[in-house]
Write a structure and sequence with these properties.
The protein has helices spanning about 1-10, 65-80; strands spanning about 15-20, 30-45, 45-60, 85-95, 100-110. The protein is an alpha+beta fold and about 120 residues long.
Length: about 120
């Protein structure tokens, strides 16, 4: 399952990782979700691979050091790239009610059928 793969890939960061939502008080954390999963590469009416799109948001509060934030973002991107994820988009976010900021990352992953 893609959720397990994402958690496994990002585990070395030692940043809490959550699926869909988070209700805690960590200074930094990651939330992710699958936004689309489609069968692709059909042969004889059977799909052989799957195209998966994920959204990942790295949240941090105003007390987190800017160099640590940049370092963590670079590690996130590198870990995903090394594991076959292709970055499609990246943008900044701010939580309107809390002093939290974020970097939103959007990726595509092709899950190849094991033969």
């Amino acid at each position: 399952m893609i959720n397990s793969k994402i958690r496994e890939i990002l585990e070395p960061l030692e940043i809490p990782i959550y699926w869909l939502e988070y209700n805690g008080d960590d200074k930094q954390y990651i939330i992710f979700q699958t936004t689309s999963q489609n069968n692709i590469r059909y042969h004889d009416d059977d799909s052989h691979d799957e195209e998966i799109y994920i959204s990942l948001i790295y949240w941090f509060d105003e007390s987190v050091d800017a160099d640590l934030i940049e370092n963590n973002l670079n590690k996130i991107k590198l870990l995903l790239k090394e594991n076959g994820f292709k970055k499609l988009n990246e943008s900044d976010l701010k939580d309107s009610g809390e002093p939290y900021y974020a970097r939103s990352l959007y990726y595509k992953y092709i899950k190849m059928e094991e033969i």
